[in-house]
Amino acid sequence: MIEASVANFDELTTGPMTVVDFWAPWCGPCKMMAPALSAVEQKYGDQIKFVKFNVDDDKSIPQRYKVMSMPSLVLFRDGQAKEKVTGLYNASQLSHYFDRKLAETTA
Asked: DSSP H helical segments within the chain, as ranges?
């Protein structure tokens, strides 16, 4: 997963589909979801760019996308935030979600 910073955030969210994981080192659910995100990144890494942003590094980016709790995933298409999902998901749930999102791009 690519680590985003304030300096490279906008550049990293360009492209057909990017998912940004907003997380923090102290967030228990974020740590619990990390293996699931890693698994789906291996499955979809050639179709979706996976980026993570530590909310402790800067507050302006999470505020821009109305990230109030974690873990939160924000889906970007061509640099534009399109959707946000918040909460703890397993690999199966994430796969189902990403399958739907990819199907929307080919429909």
From this structure: 9-12, 28-44, 60-64, 91-106
Find all residues with CB under 8 Å of 60, minimum gap 6, and list them: 6
Q: Cα–Cα distance between 40 and 93 in angstroms, integer?
A: 10
How does pLDDT run across 67-107, given as a tens digit for each residue? 999 999 999 999 999 999 999 999 999 999 999 999 987 66
Which helix (H) or strand (E) segment is 24 a member of? none
Q: Are strands 72-77 and 18-23 parallel, antiparallel or unpaired?
A: antiparallel
Q: What is the pLDDT of residues 34-43, one digit of tens each?
A: 999 999 999 9
Q: The tokens of 21 are what? A: 């994981």
Catalytic residues: 27, 30
- Distance between CA atoms of residues 34 and 12, nearest Å: 20
